[in-house]
Amino acid sequence: MSRLAPVLQGFFTDRLAAKRVSPHTIAAYRDTYRLLLLFAQDKHRIAPSNLDLNDLDAGLVAGFLDHLETTRGNSIATRNLRLTAIHSLFRYAALRCPEHADLIAHVLAIPTKHADSTLVTFLTRTETDALLDAPDQSTVLGRRDHLLLAVAVQTGLRVSELTALRVEDLTFGVGAHLRCTGKGRRERVTPLSRPTATQLAGWLTQRGAAKSDPVFPARTGGHLSTDAVARLLALHVATATTACPSLAGKTISPHTLRHTCAMTCCRPGSTPAASRSGSGTRTPDPPRPTSTPT
Length: 294
What we know:
With 294 residues, the chain is mainly α. The chain has 2 domains: 4-108, Orthogonal Bundle (DNA polymerase, domain 1), CATH 1.10.150; 125-266, Orthogonal Bundle (hpI Integrase, Chain A), CATH 1.10.443. Helix content is 53%, strand content 4%. It has helices at 4-19, 23-44, 58-70, 76-96, 101-108, 125-133, 140-155, 159-164, 194-207, 226-243, 254-266, and strands at 170-171, 177-181, 187-191. The chain has a 3-stranded antiparallel sheet with strand order 1-2-3, with no helix packed on it. A hairpin with a 5-residue loop joins strand 2 (177-181) and strand 3. Helix 1 crosses helix 4 (76-96) and helix 7 (140-155) packs antiparallel against helix 9. The radius of gyration is 23 Å and the shape is elongated. It starts with a helix and ends in a 28-residue tail after the last helix.
């Protein structure tokens, strides 16, 4: 019998640390194993600290994956991501616990589930303009939300990249741009339109923001969470739907703004939707990002 706890801890401290895996991946793996341990505890009536590797056989893992879809209502894509995390743990365990080779092989043989491809949702220029007009820019939070949405549409940053932005990541003046470290620890520099750069500079001056402060802070002053961005987006989509009814027929998430940037860049003669000034007048379109998001 091999205790699960040392294997699980070694996976985080040895394997993930050695590979310099991103914090987001580590968090996703941690959440997967937390859910798996809770499921195993309910099935075996054994505390997680007392579970053995034998307790996580292929039958239990398959049951856990079904539980994700049927009870928790997770999508097939989420189910497959959870399985990927489990496979990573068991590939590590294969080197640590060869006496469980057969059990490990059966878990690794569990296949991912095929999911039908869905059409990419993106916003038209009219829908984008309505969304950018939705925040009440007479309030501090409204100005923050307007700028966050404008930067998201113009640059195509992932929501995690947006929330992680600090003041020191922005450069104003000639060739205004922002710098971020994205997926795979790749650093990316993306230009900002002159109107958006001007509004961002004014926004930061008004706040008296320090270099280490987040560009788009939460009410408490810290970084926004991805869930908070999803909530504020849903709020402004609901407001924008009044002026642009076509938004009601779309499922819009923060990643939709990334797709909107990509689709706008690919459209001949078009560039990402422009930011609007507080007076509601139209401003020039921004330059294209350095690369098309995928």
